[in-house]
Structure formats: C-alpha cells, structure tokens
Design goal:
elongated; Methane Monooxygenase Hydroxylase, Chain G, domain 1; 2% strand; mainly alpha; single chain
Length: 233
C-alpha cells in the first residue's frame, strides 16, 4: 500500500513522512540531507546568476566606452565585471554543477573580450593572458574570437577618418589572433564551440581585408590626383 507524506504548515515548511510501518525502509534522514544539499545549491545559483548578468552588462558597456575613447569609464566597468565574476565564483566554489553550468563561462568570455578589445584598440604590445584576467582557457579563447569582431568595428571607425595605415595595423593583430584560434584543434566540448566562433572570425577578417583594400586604393587615387593638381597649378 502506498503511503503519502504531508506538508508541514510550520514556519520551516518541511515535508513530513508518516511513521514507518513494520518492515518499511526509513529514508527520512537521506531525504533530509539531499534536500539540504539541493537548498544550498539553489541558494548558490540564485546568488551567482545575477552576478553573471551584472558582469555581462558591465562588459558590454565597457566595450562601447572603449570605442568612444572613454577608457576611464571602461576600466571602471571592467573592474565591476571582474568583481562580480569573482564573487560568483566564490559562491559556487562547492557547487560544480552550478560552477560549470555555462553562464559563468559566458561572463568570463565577455570579460576577456572587453580586455582584449581594449588591448587591440590601444595598440598594446601584448594581449592580457588568461592567468592575468583570472578566466578559464575556453572562455578566454571565445572572448578573443569575439574581440576580432570588435576590432573590425574599430577599423571601420578608422577608415571613416581616413586612417588607413592604423587600420592595417589592427588587421595584423586580427590575423595574429585568428592564427591562435585556428591552431586550437580540440573537441567543442573542451573549447566550448570555439570552432564556430573561429569560422565567424575568419569571415569578419576577410570582409575587413576587402574594406581596407578598397580604402587603400581610394586613398592612393586621391593622393595621386592631389599631386597631379599641384603639378598643374
């Protein structure tokens, strides 16, 4: 015969099982411990998820600030993102099922993208490493792939101001990053679908190369016409 429990109306609200019949297995202690562990995991999740969203939002705003040249604002936003990520990682330290659920990796990816974008836009000699950023390898590489898209955006801004030489220097950085990405020949389960991000990055690089070629030809033609006009004058 099936025995059904009942929900306690007390302040703690616990599921109460009826007294065991002779020969029945008493699972009260097991179920209580399981429930306590799931409660702890849920609490960690509810604290980590908002922190992850905060980090992603701060990184998106930081990237916009970088493109506007507002580096102080960008640094403040990236610091906020890092603090949120660190807090989330601390909360889920004992809960690997939450730690590796994906949304914390997304936050790390966005943070890596913002920091790498800053390095590319400011023409830094070296990119920050995963160890310096405190992020995992796969999110770092996916952030690098996304930063290639932001580098293209920066090049288009440069071309609008006629700064073709600077745009070509940024394209070189994009190529260097792509060569790193394409060399990571590992399963998607390890790299978090890096292959797809790499394919997108390659497409963006080729489009950017075409834009720069057109801009270079246009600039050379413009310079030639100016030289001709000066000789005629």
């Amino acid at each position: 015969m099936t025995r059904w429990g009942s929900w306690s109306d007390g302040p703690d609200g616990r599921w109460a099982w009826p007294a065991p019949e002779p020969g029945a297995v008493n699972l009260d202690a097991i179920s209580e411990r399981l429930r306590e562990r799931f409660d702890a995991t849920m609490e960690a999740r509810e604290r980590a998820l908002p922190a992850s969203r905060t980090a992603i939002r701060s990184c998106a705003n930081a990237i916009r600030a970088i493109h506007r040249g507002e580096l102080d604002t960008a640094h403040r936003l990236m610091d906020e993102a890092k603090a949120a990520i660190d807090e989330a990682l601390r909360v889920v330290e004992d809960h690997p099922q939450v730690r590796y659920a994906g949304y914390l990796q997304d936050a790390q990816k966005e943070y890596a993208e913002a920091r790498i974008t800053e390095a590319v836009v400011t023409r830094a000699a070296e990119l920050p490493t995963p160890e310096e950023l405190g992020v995992e390898d796969a999110p770092y590489l996916n952030g690098m792939a996304e930063a290639i898209g932001e580098a293209r955006r920066h090049i288009l801004d440069l071309l609008r101001h006629g700064r073709v030489d600077e745009g070509e220097a940024v394209l070189t950085a994009m190529d260097d990053m792509y060569y790193v990405l394409v060399s990571m020949d590992y399963p998607d389960a390890i790299t978090l679908n890096l292959r797809r991000s790499t394919d997108v990055a390659r497409s963006l690089i080729e489009k950017t190369r075409g834009d720069l070629s057109v801009a270079r030809v246009s600039q050379d033609l413009h310079d030639a016409l100016e030289r001709h006009a000066k000789r005629q004058g």
